[in-house]
Design goal:
Largest sheet: 5 strands, antiparallel
Strand content: 35-45%
Number of strands: 5
Distance between the termini: 28 Å
Number of helices: 3
Radius of gyration: 14 Å
């Protein structure tokens, strides 16, 4: 597992760094707590005439905060696709009672 702050050091392309920064911005705006971001093996792999960049992201928040995050991702200027989305209840006594795991991808033309 890669530390979120160290992840940018492993990325070599502008698109990857932009995706990472945009996800951080949306998380901060939505007030969710990101617990991990992990690049998927396909990171930057060519597919036909475009490149696909994907991250597995885990974060915590309330139902409404998580919904706000997902909504902002879907309405972002950068075309991002949520390919997998999973909500896991943690308990009602927690400050952030839900964990969310998702796979987020962007596509670019080289």
């Amino acid at each position: 597992l890669v530390n979120i702050n160290d992840l940018e050091l492993l990325l070599d392309g502008k698109e990857e760094i932009e995706l990472l920064n945009r996800v951080r911005e949306i998380a901060a705006e939505s007030k969710v707590r990101v617990t991990s971001m992990t690049p998927i093996e396909e990171w930057g792999k060519m597919r036909r005439k475009y490149k696909k960049f994907s991250l597995n992201i885990s974060f915590e928040g309330t139902y409404h905060l998580l919904g706000d995050f997902v909504s902002k991702v879907e309405n972002s200027e950068k075309v991002m696709k949520i390919e997998m989305l999973e909500f896991i209840p943690k308990g009602t006594e927690e400050e952030f009672p839900l964990q969310c795991n998702l796979t987020l991808s962007i596509f670019s033309v080289p």
